[in-house]
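Hi C.,

You asked whether I'd gotten around to modeling the 180-residue construct. I have! Everything is below, sequence then structure, no commentary in between.
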Amino acid sequence: MNLITLVNNKPEISTYALTIKEFKAIWDLDNTKHKDIAVNQLAYVYFYCDVKSPYFEYEEKIRGEKINEALTVKIKETDIIIKAKERYNNLNKNISILLLEDAMTSVHKMRDYFKDIDLLKEDNNGKLKYNSKQYVDNLKSLPDILKSIKKLREEIDNEMQEGIRVRGGGMLNIEEIPNR
């Protein structure tokens, strides 16, 4: 879904997005002339939820912080923002995207495992707590895991592109793409 598009280097809210009550609520609450607050809040929702967002790779617990570091205005997760994120996820996420999210969660857990493991740490009985062979085997599996994630991302991109193709092999203009 395209919540925000750039038109002449200026962010604009999609007309389709304004038909959805959670996004319209954000828009309507902003009384500024150019709707800068609403644009930033909707950008936050997009950056937080969309699989194509550069922030998607961050763990959820720090994703909001990373987005706020980049935005010109800090966004507080109010009830309206939380509801907008939930709606965006409900409208946008199919099984492929959900699987990618789950895979990314597991990859972050593996990162923590590799970062925190102490191969010399002993348990209460004086035996080594971690098995170095398992560690090496896990390390060897990383390239395959990364290739699988890359392939899943490509599949998701292909699925998204299929949704905007029209008869005759053409592509829809950004304003013609219906909400997904």
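If it helps when you're writing up: Confidence is low (pLDDT under 50) at residues 165-180.

Thanks,
B.
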